[in-house]
Amino acid sequence: MTAKLRILTGINRTSGPSSGSTIIVNDIYGSMLEFSTTFLGREPVDPAWNYSFDELIPLTTPKRPQGPEFDAYVAQLTREVSTLIEQVRPNVIHAQNPGFALSLALVRAAGSIPVISIAHGPEVIVAERDERERELLREVVTASAFVVAPTAALAGRIDRLTGRRCVDRISVIPWGIPLNDVRVREYPSVGTGPLSLVYAGRLDANKSAVTGIEAIAVAGQPHRLTIIGRGPEKEALRERVRVLGVQNRVEFSPFLPRRELWQRLPEFDALVFTTHDSEAFGLVAVEAQAHGLPVAYANLPEMAETLRHAGTPFTPGDPASLASALDELARDAHWRNALIRAGLDNSRRYDITETARQLADLTTDVVYRARR
Question: Domains in the chain, start-ordered, CATH in brackets?
Answer without folding.
Answer: 5-176+351-371 (3.40.50.2000), 179-347 (3.40.50.2000)
